[in-house]
Amino acid sequence: MRSNKAEVLIVEDDLIISRLHKHVIGKLVPEDPKIFLNGREALDYLDEGSGKEKEILVLLDLNMPVMNGWDFLKNCGLRPYSNKIHVVIITSSMFNEDSRKAAQFEQVIGYYVKPLKQEHLLEIMELEQVAHLFEKR
Q1: Which one, of 128, 123, 104, lies nearest residue 28 by Cα?
Q2: Interatomic CA distance for residues 6 and 40, integer angstroms
Q3: At CB < 8 A and 24+ separation, what contacts does 82-86 make?
Q4: Model-level pTM?
Q5: Cα 134 from Cα 75, distance rounded (Å)
Q6: Which among 16, 3, 9 has a CA at the least distance from the CA of 85?
Q7: Contact, 64 vs 37, CB < 8 A?
Q8: pLDDT tens per residue, range 12-61
Q9: Sign of the Cα pseudo-torsion (129, 130, 133, 134, in order)
Q10: Which of 26, 67, 91, 92 pairs with 39 at a CA distance of 20 to 30 A?
Q11: How much of the chain exceeds pLDDT 90, in percent?
């Protein structure tokens, strides 16, 4: 188990995938991740103050209704708390073009194809940008 200095958000419109990701993550972090069905819901949540308190790890789908992952990234980058947001894209897109586009956003620290597996999450939690947030006990 790890101590948690961050909050984990799952931004995914497919409820089966989001629950699968929540289950995998729930085994590794003490606080349940929050699920949002689109980027607008997640951005509203962050704007309400969560983004000002803790650092946030966002597992972000790209293709969603209302506000997709690209629009979330653009809007998130404009927020005063953007330096506290670390985004890992979890998508069904295997296009190299999407991976290259994602790398252009400062908050993006990883890119994985669905579904997220436990070994992927362990890799994510060891990334330099977020490893200090999920310290091993």
Answers
A1: 123
A2: 21
A3: 82/106, 82/107, 84/51, 84/52, 84/54, 84/55, 84/56, 85/46, 85/51, 85/55, 85/56, 85/58, 86/6, 86/55, 86/56, 86/57, 86/58, 86/127, 86/129, 86/130
A4: 0.87
A5: 26
A6: 9
A7: yes
A8: 999 988 888 888 877 777 778 899 999 999 999 999 875 566 889 999 99
A9: negative
A10: 26
A11: 39
In this prediction, residue 27 carries a pLDDT of 73
Amino acid at 102: A
**CA 77 vs CA 29, 72, 99, 119, 128: distances in Å:** 26, 8, 18, 28, 20
Residue (of 67, 57, 12) closest to 31 by Cα position? 57
Q: What is the CA radius of gyration of the chain?
A: 13
Q: Domain boundaries in the chain?
A: 14-116
Residue 4 clears pLDDT 70, i.e. is over it:
no
* 97-135 pLDDT tens trace: 888 999 999 999 999 988 777 788 888 888 888 887 765
CATH fourth-level superfamily of 14-116: Response regulator (3.40.50.2300)
